[in-house]
Design goal:
Elements (H helix, E strand, L loop, with lengths): L8 E6 L7 E6 L21 E6 L6 E6 L37 E4 L9
Antiparallel strand pairs: 1-3, 2-4, 4-5
């Protein structure tokens, strides 16, 4: 029997900076029910790599880096100099989209006509 997994794609986030960054991830809940089984924000030391699987049909996904964060006093969108989000270290799954200035990587998997 052929067995397939709904989590068929591996994402790798590598911090190539010489300083700590705090990657964040967001899925638009209005686009589809599939979300990665991974935290929505984490600390990445210089040179570190984080790998995780995402659903094959993850729609409207985005990942971005946050810099110079301090979540101890203000776990909101201004807790980072760049890319802050609602929720603090782990971005709110409904509103944690990333506050400018920020550069995001965005994609749609298994889109119309099965185009990624």
């Amino acid at each position: 029997a052929l067995v397939t997994s709904a989590y068929a794609r591996k994402f790798t986030v590598t911090n190539n900076c010489e300083y700590t960054v705090w990657p964040a991830m967001y899925t638009d809940p209005n686009v589809g029910p599939s979300v990665p089984d991974h935290v929505t924000g984490w600390e990445a030391a210089a040179g570190s790599t984080e790998e995780f699987e995402v659903p094959d049909d993850w729609k409207a996904g985005r990942i971005w880096g946050r810099t110079e964060c301090d979540f101890s006093t203000n776990p909101g969108p201004t807790s980072c100099v760049t890319g802050g989000c609602n929720g603090g270290l782990e971005c709110d799954p409904n509103t944690g989209t990333g506050v400018p200035p920020v550069t995001v990587a965005e994609w749609t998997l298994e889109g119309d006509d099965r185009q990624d």
